[in-house]
Amino acid sequence: MIGFIGSGQMARALATGFIQQGRLLGAEICFTNPGDTNADAFLQAAPGARRLASAELVVREAAQVWVAVKPQIIRGVLEPLASAFRSEQVLVSVAAGVTLGSLEKWTRHEKIVRVSPSTPAVVGQGISILSHSAAVTEIETDHVRSLLQTVGSAWEVPERLIDPISGLTSCGPAFVMTIIEALSDGAVRAGVPRHLANPLVLELLSGSIALVQKTGLHPAQLREQVASPAGSTIEGLVALEEGGLRAALINAVSSSSRRAGELGKLAMADDPATSQGSGG
Fold this sequence. Notes:
The protein is α/β, with parallel strands linked by helices. The chain has helices at 9-20, 36-45, 55-61, 74-78, 100-107, 138-148, 162-169, 172-189, 194-215, 219-226, 232-243, 245-269; strands at 2-5, 29-32, 50-51, 64-67, 90-93, 112-116, 126-132, 152-156. It is 52% helix and 12% strand. It has an eight-stranded mixed β-sheet, with helices on both faces.
């Protein structure tokens, strides 16, 4: 039995992947959430799952517990549960920035996996970064990894790399959406109807990614193949440099990485809360 504490978008994406990929039946999933809206959505995403009245009941019933609440409130959710965890259970946290050390301290539990997922998990294309405490066995780690792979890829890294990577993988979808929107706006400004601009931008991005993947060439080399002397592409590249796109993207990733670490520190410093949230 897999149990979820919190039933927001990420919890729903994970549960959906577990079921659709045949790793679990809906009846093998239980969850708790104080609000009916997210709970109802979870039941639609994971038919057959059971809603329990409290987080303590989830901990007592599930063999593996996934905590999918906001980092600002996770301490208040976990501390009252410390006496409920069993030594053989694996606790999986998807709360941004919250360290293994903090989770161990609040729960007085040793088997913990920390995961930084990304929203494309909703469509089975997520990136999950994970690290675990020393007490988690290789078999247990492989099980968590295999579950995460139902919604995309899963990468195990030293914990010190989770926050820096999450600034790219977890926050990156928002940056990419901004790029998609801006490219479409640029096409519209040049006279392309919106109903053509949007799908063309998506094909542009997917084709460019495929080119990098299949050729194995550095992006700079592929860029140079397009930018002929005195051509239109080099003019566009100059505009990007003048607009500071490269620096803006670098700063976006580094700022998001830094904030992920700050969230973990805030979770340590804040007084315990009593409410539950819906995401990490």
